[in-house]
Design goal:
alpha/beta; Rossmann fold; six-stranded mixed beta sheet; four-stranded antiparallel beta sheet; 10 strands
């Protein structure tokens, strides 16, 4: 059982309460209970196919659970008001960018969708361009950007409106070292401002530099935690996963 500080819905944070979702092929996630507190960067780590993206889509309301409850800001995502979703910033799988719009145009379009008022939009977009190092590309169309700069654009679009709830799936994908450090600093600033942040990653060393808590996922379940300040983090991760694999492979009813 993974340790969490609470499994009760908490205003201001994000929570999953005994959530399960199974797909037609039998794959899915099972009995997930997780809390991401305000002011916290909570990292989710696991091997490919562990279920990290599915968990995040459930948290964002992109998928509905078969059982359990998903809470954002104290509201069940099944009937959360529009104001809750306006306070969410996310990037799952690949950054969404309109190919024929410029970088600035993409950020303006996203700001509109995020509920940023017309009189604030210019300032919000200008701040995002500066914060994510996109000034040199502001007038370029998204289709000509490198993969790393498209990722920066996607992250800027997700975070420019200062969301209270942040969900990022493998956010350092395609980023160069400078972009990775920049993102780390941005996430710490957002957490210091009180945002509840969940990120997934397979870069354990990088996760340890930014996360307050690390939760391990395997075969659709949350199976334990890692200490971000601990030594030999990769070794500890594989030990937790191996122990879970071995426990699941034991015949039912066998002596432990």
């Amino acid at each position: 059982m993974v340790h969490t500080s609470s499994t009760e819905p908490v205003d201001g944070g994000m929570a999953m309460l005994s959530v399960s979702r199974t797909f037609s092929d039998g794959v899915g996630v099972h009995d997930l209970s997780l809390r991401v507190a305000p002011g916290e960067v909570h990292a989710l780590v696991g091997l490919n196919g562990a279920g990290k993206s599915t968990l995040m889509k459930l948290l964002l309301g992109m998928l509905r659970p078969d059982s359990g409850r998903v809470m954002v800001g104290g509201h069940d995502t099944a009937n959360a008001p529009a104001g809750v979703w306006a306070a969410v910033g996310h990037l799952v799988e690949t950054p969404l960018a309109y190919r024929e719009l410029t970088v600035a145009g993409n950020l303006q379009a996203n700001a509109t969708l995020q509920g940023v008022t017309a009189d604030q939009r210019k300032a919000v977009v200008g701040a995002a361009v500066k914060e994510f190092g996109l000034a040199a590309f502001s007038a370029k169309r998204a289709r000509v950007l490198s993969s790393g700069n498209r990722q920066r654009l996607g992250l800027a679009a997700a975070l420019q409106h200062r969301p209270r709830f942040v969900v990022l799936d493998e956010p350092t994908n395609a980023l160069d070292p400078a972009g990775t450090i920049l993102l780390r600093d941005v996430l710490r600033r957002r957490a210091d401002d009180g945002a509840a942040i969940l990120i997934s990653s397979h870069h354990l060393d990088e996760v340890a530099r930014v996360a307050d808590r690390i939760t391990v996922m395997n075969a659709g379940r949350l199976i334990g935690g890692l200490d971000p300040t601990g030594a030999e983090l990769e070794q500890a991760f594989f030990a937790v996963v191996l122990a879970d694999d071995e426990a699941r492979s034991e015949p039912q009813g066998s002596a432990s």
